Amino acid sequence: MTTPDIEPDYAYPPRFRHLKRWTIIGFLALGALATLRYGWGVEAQRRLDAYAASAHARGRKAFLSDFSVPSIPDDQNAASLLRTAAASLKYEDDANDWENAFKHELPLTRTDLDILARVKRGNATVSRDMRRARALGRVNWGIVMRTPAFTILLPHLNEARGLANLASYLALYEHTLHNDHEVIELARDILFDARSTEQPPVFLISHLVANGVDRVATNVLFQVISTLRIQSLQENTPSAGSAAPDQIRALIADLLDETSLIQGASDCWQGEQSAWVDNAPAAVAQQSPTPRIISFLAPMFTLQALRGAANLDSIPTALSQSTYSRARAVIPAATRLSNASTLYNISRAVGSFFSIGVPGRYIQDDFIARAHHRLAATALAIRLYQFDHASERPSSLDQLVPKYLPKVPRDPFSRDDKSLVYRSDPSHPVLYSLGINERDDSGIEYAPGTTTGPRRPQPLDIIIDLRSTPSK
Question: Which long-range contacts (CB under 8 A, 24 or more apart) does 247-251 make?
């Protein structure tokens, strides 16, 4: 006989009452969290919209889509020729070994000349395509700007380095063989190669490569200008090997036209800002095993990205300044370099700037590039003056205006926006910029006994030795 179930006449245990309470509290918490997430998302979107509106109102780019460019037919697109040139670039095995050891300096040894003669023969079509690309002028790499930005590949950057190196080797080779007409053309090819890397899509890495390629061109010019041979009136064709005066004037114009130099740098920084805004939520969501949780935190990543982009917002304005000191005054203290404190620089290189380092360092490099351009252009003008005045140098840079230069170039590292420094002493003529310390060190390039890294002396002035046989 079974005992019937009897309903207990005592209260439910306390634990059941607690469960009911916690369930209610949980639903209330979820509701509050959903409300918070909604408000968080609305605020993140509001700030994103405000950031975009502010950028567009100032004529700047805010999103990857802002960098779209019209297509260019292949037969009018310099990018097609540059890609063809890069694909044709080749070195023999011993030339590869030589390249790794080559110091990019004059004078060339007999081994250098023998290898470079073969390199020139093997890459004749490469040089031809680079020249044709410069003649076309317009560049479109045909790379789609897609989200997330970190998946965009930029293979043309490595190609640009390879082409610039080849052209620089050949320029030193041609100068040694007294073919300075070709040296000038190769220098112009390298400068165009540099500017082509700053065509969309552009990010900070694009600008760094462009600066590196640009430095290759000015490094060649710094070495050859003092012994550059100029075509006389008796030489009716450039085949004689000497550079034509009009050809040199065209190179001077290229060097002094800083519009593309500054605009390219500005576009790259705006591209970097756009990448920050685009990458923040997308990068984490793609790499996380729990994208739903990450998507919940998307407003946080968006807000953090906007803060990072805001830290870079002053960079394009800084680039438009006439001197380095004024540019430093424009950018926030957190993005500057301090020449006095290593600890300060290290502290600023971490945190929100760990992904790209201290932006002020890149601004410094931009002004170094300007100094190199102005020094090279001015030294070329002095060389033209010598050609017209029986090898006599001008007593001052004012004598170069207006026949050889439109105006005397200013020193971007002069706090007072003064001109480049020129010493016409016949025993040691020199042209120089004050350099990153913004002090006149009397044309001394490096501080003896000081280092800024492993075996690297501390830089002082940026100089061009104008002697026909510069001392080492």
Answer: 247/181, 247/184, 247/185, 248/184, 248/380, 248/383, 248/384, 249/384, 249/404, 250/188, 251/184, 251/187, 251/188, 251/377, 251/380
